[in-house]
From TrEMBL:
Keywords: Membrane, Transmembrane, Transmembrane helix. Belongs to the BI1 family. InterPro entries: Bax_inhibitor_1-related (IPR006214). One of its GO terms (cellular component) is Golgi apparatus. The keyword Cell membrane does not apply. This is Transmembrane BAX inhibitor motif containing 1. It comes from Nothobranchius rachovii (bluefin notho). It is found in: Membrane. One of its GO terms (biological process) is negative regulation of apoptotic signaling pathway. It is a multi-pass membrane protein. The chain crosses the membrane at residues 16-38, 50-71.
Length: 77
């Protein structure tokens, strides 16, 4: 819904809300993917899938960084 509103008119607080929700979601993805790498639970990544594990952590961290940049950019405007 926020993406549709932001495509027509720029609303600073809505953009910041969208970025904050995205940062929280990707932080939860980071926790989940880290737990998959550690294992010792019902779900775990096998040692043969180390490239997938490293790539998923990398993508999560990059997305968190991008959302934090959006939050800081919206805060300065």
């Amino acid at each position: 819904v926020t993406a549709i509103v932001l495509s027509f008119q720029y609303v600073p607080w809505l953009h910041m809300l969208y970025a904050a929700i995205g940062a929280v979601v990707y932080t939860l993805f980071l926790v989940y993917n880290t737990q998959l790498l550690i294992g010792n639970r019902e779900l775990a990544i096998s040692p043969e899938e180390y490239i997938y594990g490293a790539l998923s952590l990398y993508v999560d961290i990059v997305n968190i960084f991008l959302f934090i940049l959006q939050i800081s950019g919206a805060a300065t405007e």
